[in-house]
Amino acid sequence: MNINQPLQAFSLPFAKTAAGSSGPTTQHLRFPFAHHLPDEVRTHLIAMSGEYVGTVLFLYFALSGTQVANTIRSSAGLTVEEIGANPQQLQYIALSFGFSLAVNAWVFFRISGGLFNPAVTLGMCFIGALSWTRGTLLFITQILGGMTAAALVSCMFPGPLDVQTILGAGTSIVQGLFIEIFLTAQLVFTIFMLAAEKHKSTFIAPVGIGLSLFVAEMTGVYFTGGSLNPARSFGPAVVNNHFHGYHWIYWVGPILGALLAAGFYKFIKILEYETAYPDQDAVLTELKREKEILGCECGNRTHGTATGVMESEIGREGSRGTDGTVVEKEGPTSLGVGVGANGREAQGVVDGNRIQELQEALQDGNDRERRYRVGGTADEMV
Hints:
mainly alpha
């Protein structure tokens, strides 16, 4: 596939272009009813659809890894209680959740935010990053996505669905509740600082978020099943039609954890935490300022080119003879380029040189920013 080739024309029988005409097009397509929807409703639908699909994919692969780990450990014919957990199994489950979240959050971040967790959604509402209307819609969508993912795992894999979150190793209900609170607070606060706060590391936020879930799962899987997500616990319970008497801790714990993370986040924001380490984004600020300066220089150069060409044309107009013909002058013009019979060749050469000069200046600025992102230092920027 040649990515340099233009997009081929295509058509959908039920879709129309933005202008209302059907048929082959390379423009954005719209459903027939889309132009009747208010922008707010349309954006809510986009976010809900992205969050539903993202939650299904995230929990499908996470629960699939859990099903594989639990199937292997019981393959000897013994029950789960008789065999117990082992470090390899716990690592397998934790990696399944961590990597699945990192990949799918990275994919769906630009569509819906890549939350996939009702507790995270509530936390984003608590700090004002999401409206309560959007948060409520995403909350419902995530619960539906959790049930869908559990149903898919149950249908596709042999044997009973063995992915429910349960208390183990003699963990009491109170202990399980506090484990869920603190592990969820760790995850939610990571999301606040890497995704809700915009800085030079935001573009790799899904990696840090996935690692945060991995660390939390390494701790929580053995004792509580490592829920941290009401949709993760509710979906398998619905599919298996079995709710433990302490199922409520997988709702209350993550929600309280999100509240705890939101409270601490608000606290450090009120104290203006940025002032404690003010130079952490100084290089990024300098990069932005340099790009703005380059943009101004490019604008000035473009204006100067246009002015020079106009002056050249005016000079040629003033050299007409009495019969109206142009009197040719040998040698370069004021722009330093030889002028032909009609001056077009000189104008093309000047414009081409100026465009190349501007492109080189912009490319130099982009190269500097790229060197910084891949490990360059501030000294390399100047």
